[in-house]
Amino acid sequence: MPALPVGEPVPDDGALPDWVRPPAVEPARPFGVYVHVPFCSVRCGYCDFNTYTASELGGGASQAAYATTALREVALAARVLDDAGLGGRRVDTVFVGGGTPTMLPAADIARVLDGIRDTWGLADPSTGAAAEVTTEANPDSVTPESLRVLADAGFTRVSFGMQSAVPHVLATLERTHDPRRIPDVVAWARDAGLDVSLDLIYGTPGESLDDWRRSVETALATGVDHVSAYALVVEPGTKMHAQVRRGILTLPDEDDQAAKYELADDLLTAAGLQWYEVSNWARGREHACRHNLAYWRGHDWWGIGPGAHSYVAGGSVAGAAAPAGRDGDHAGVRWWNVKHPRRYAALLEDGRSPGAGRELLTRGEAHLERVMLGVRLSEGLDLAVLDAAGRHAVAGLVARGLLDGTAAVRGRAVLTRRGRLLADAVVRELTA
After folding, report:
1. Could you check whether the bond before residue 99 is cis, i.e. omega within 30 degrees of 0?
2. Confidence band, pLDDT 50/70/90 cuts, at residue 4
3. How far apart are CA 214 and CA 167, in angstroms?
């Protein structure tokens, strides 16, 4: 697992900087809540997330105690946001991730959602869109009954970690579920009234193009309305990284990765799913993951759980800078919790913030993030956000087929498919 960033200390009471304040004129910034559940039955060889098996934990960090511990942080978050003048906002999106959230009893996951609802309230159709409430799940960690409990509690989406439909690919990834179970769990979720997303990974060592085609086609055959497809990234410190270093596994080259991305885009588009972010496709905007869109658009969110990250903008709108004057160069604050569940639980039980460190974003850093995240969306980035050098670079990127020319004329930087494959390079030129 990667080390946490190095930042300045978080106050014991979790207080936000004085310059973080609510918008003076504009409507309240959207607000989301992420809940990290750090439990897995086994640790997959490629995974570097902050996860733990049951045998590694105990006491207040146990699965049985986790809902109570998480609700302590919900209470702390409410107090901190109230003190900063940012309370009173209903929650627009909730995302329960991990780990494997559905290793917890469905009633415990529902209890955490109840605590979030009781503390802030959830957005409802009378004030706009109803709240989107998602949980991740492994295909072997749900039943028809558990999914109905989640739907009755207010969950609206479930995102299954399918990863592949090919047994030898799943074996390399050390995924434990039977791929034949995928159609069943999708049907169970839909019968419960939940929207369903499937997550796929391409570029696993030993995966052929035909293997990848089989995985995408299997996902589409379930009729889901949302698919995420991510290139495998092998992080240092993972078991798979050691296997690659020792020559046990061989990673595919960039051309293989590009071919698989293009194949996925062809198959998903032909089935009626359109890309809305570089790695995400949905059947209409109503099926896009609004919680992840909130990250990419720079909205506020609070991350509950060990190792979870949070962000609050410092200016009057998301991505804007704080007013001039003392601390006027700051544009937002990001902080992260201690990683180990036992330490996380102990701090909250003691009435202290579990924050391990925080970063005060400058105007320049916030600008870079706004470009980096905004350009990944199919809606593109308003060219007015760019500085003069960035705007000057647009014509060259259009000429090289990386940005859409028609969109650029209309004042938006929108990636072409070739541009999606080279998104990081596009960002570097727009922010040079």
Report:
1. yes
2. low
3. 11
Taking each helix axis as running N to C, give the angle between helix 209-221 and helix 182-191, from 0 to 180 degrees, rounded to the nearest 10.
30
- The angle, 0 to 180 degrees and rounded to 10, between the axes of the packed helices 423-430 and 363-374 is 140
CA distances from 281 to 204, 213, 299 (A): 21, 16, 21
User: DSSP letter string over 339-390?
Assistant: S-HHHHHHHHHTT---EEEEEEEEHHHHHHHHHHHHTTBTT-EEGGGS-HHH
SS3 string of 113-155? Answer: HHHHHHHHCECCHHHCCCCEEEEEECHHHCCHHHHHHHHHHCC
pLDDT > 90? residue 254 = yes
Q: What is the pLDDT of residue 2?
A: 61
Scan for tokens 């701090």, then name that residue: 347
Whole-angstrom Cα distance, residue 136 to residue 115? 19
Domains of the chain: 31-293 (3.20.20.70), 375-432 (no CATH)
Whole-prediction pTM: 0.93
Q: What DSSP assignment string belongs to 182-215?
A: HHHHHHHHHHTT-EEEEEEEE--TT--HHHHHHH
| pLDDT at residue 352 in the model | 98
Residue corresponding to tokens 């419960």: 192
- Length of the chain equals 432
Measured distance CA(310)–CA(270) in Å, rounded? 37
Q: How far apart are CA 124 and CA 313, in angstroms?
A: 24
384 neighbors 108 (Cβ within 8 angstroms): no
The candidate with the shortest Cα–Cα distance to 230, out of 47, 11, 40, 38, is 47
pLDDT digit string, tens, across residues 288-314: 999 999 999 999 999 999 999 999 997
Distance from C-alpha of 164 to C-alpha of 215, rounded to nearest angstrom: 5
